[in-house]
Specification:
It contains 12 helices and 15 strands. It is α/β, with parallel strands linked by helices and 364 residues long. The strands form 3 sheets. Strands 1, 2, 3, 4, 5 and 11 form a 6-stranded mixed β-sheet that branches. The protein has a 5-stranded mixed β-sheet with strand order 8-7-9-6-10. A 4-stranded antiparallel β-sheet has the order 13-14-12-15. The longest helix is centred in the first third of the chain and has 36 residues. The model has no long low-confidence stretch (mean pLDDT 95). The chain binds prephenic acid (PRE). The site of prephenic acid (PRE) has 12 residues, from helix 1, helix 2 and helix 3. Its EC number is 4.2.1.51, 5.4.99.5.
């Protein structure tokens, strides 16, 4: 005989009792964070940011490790992400500049990394994001750096060549596109679709198969596409979840991208160095000597000291014609002995070395 299931009112009573406990514990945690702020202020009366990227990464790593389900580790980590964001806002809210406008994937990346309690401000260009942080008008900035199908965002790399800012974190975002329309728009009336040209390209096969005849119009961003269709009953936009929410649009089709593993990586930029979290990366820029074997001499110390490279990019140096700089990301933190050793050796082997900082690997 099967066991009798509890009734719906009984289950809801259980849920109410559990919610009371969760609620009390969240506020207990928030009071703790308030005291943390007092301790930090006592240690440094001039403190402007209470954010601790390495500690947040550790909290999220612990959540993922101890999770037993039925909720997925990433789902629970996202809940803790928001709890920490709210706790930090009690200490002092963070101001975050990102490559706008509101509703872009960079906006989604900023919210994924800092949670919804952060104050996010859209900037018109990547340079402006750097300038806001350099001027102290924003605590941190968020900029795109590479996409799994489109490649590197050259402008972001070039900004690092001339800036004194550090990389303090990274975010990875699966890029999911949706076909969005305003409330009341009917499928049969759609005659045009707006999106950023990259997104139109990323959904080309899907559009060819489902809407071969509608006009495809490239605009400055997906968020701009979403804004436009808000007032047009014969148009659709291709954009992400954040833009759909922002402009109150209806999703006619979800996940219409041709490559479902399409991912963009974003960098968090700031002014301070980040202590080790236990699972970190370091990014450097090196200008090689113009001689045979120059790249080999740069890479050899990494191999000898067992440090894995996660990325290497070449960009024209902005000072000399026909000379190049390498952007190198590798595993490890600059406070680790092998990393220090490799950085010391590299100094003697290259024309210039700029350390962009060590930061926790993306956890969620
Ligand atoms: O541990 C700290 O330093 C805190 O300020 C607490 C806390 C948290 O809520 O866990 C909040 C903000 C920081 O960015 C890191 C962690």
């Amino acid at each position: 005989m099967s066991e009798k299931l509890p009734t719906l009112p009984e289950l809801r009573q259980q849920i109410d009792a559990i919610d009371v406990q969760i609620h009390e514990l969240i506020n207990q945690r928030a009071r703790c964070a308030q005291t943390v702020a007092e301790v930090k202020k006592a240690e440094d009366p001039t403190i402007t940011s209470f954010y601790r990227p390495e500690r947040e990464a550790q909290v999220l790593q612990m959540v993922m490790q101890r999770n037993q389900g039925p909720l997925a580790g990433e789902t629970v980590a996202k809940l803790f992400r928001e709890i920490m964001s709210a706790c930090l806002a009690l200490e002092s809210p963070l101001k975050i500049a990102f490559l706008g406008p509101n509703g872009t994937f960079t906006h989604a990346a900023a919210l994924k990394h800092f949670g919804h309690a952060a104050i996010t401000r859209p900037m018109a260009t990547i340079d402006e994001v750097f300038r806001e942080v350099e001027a102290g008008s924003a605590h941190y900035g968020v900029v795109p750096v590479e996409n799994s199908s489109e490649g590197v965002v050259n402008h972001t790399l070039d900004c690092f060549i001339n800036s004194g800012l550090k990389i303090i974190g990274e975010v990875e975002l699966r890029i999911h596109h949706n076909l969005l329309v305003a409330e009341g728009t009917q499928l049969k009336n759609i005659s045009r679709v707006y999106s950023h040209q990259q997104s139109l390209a990323q959904c080309r096969k899907w559009l060819d198969a489902h809407f071969p005849k509608i006009e495809r119009i490239a605009v400055s961003s997906n968020a701009e596409a979403a804004r436009l269709v808000k007032g047009e009953w014969h148009s659709a936009a291709i954009a992400g979840e954040t833009a759909a929410e922002l402009y109150g649009l209806k999703k006619l089709h979800e996940n219409i991208e041709d490559n479902p593993s399409n991912t963009t990586r974003f960098l968090i930029i700031g002014t301070e160095s980040t202590p080790p979290s236990g699972d970190d990366k370091t990014s450097i820029i090196v200008a090689a000597h113009n001689e045979a074997g120059a790249l080999y001499r740069i890479l050899e110390p990494f191999y000898r000291n067992g440090l894995s490279l996660t990325r290497i990019e070449t960009r024209p140096s902005q000072s000399d014609i026909w000379s190049y700089v390498f952007f190198i990301d590798f595993e490890g933190h600059q406070q680790q002995p092998q990393v220090k050793l490799v950085l010391d050796e590299l100094h003697d082997r290259v024309r210039e070395l700029k350390n962009l900082g060590s930061y926790p690997k993306a956890v969620i």
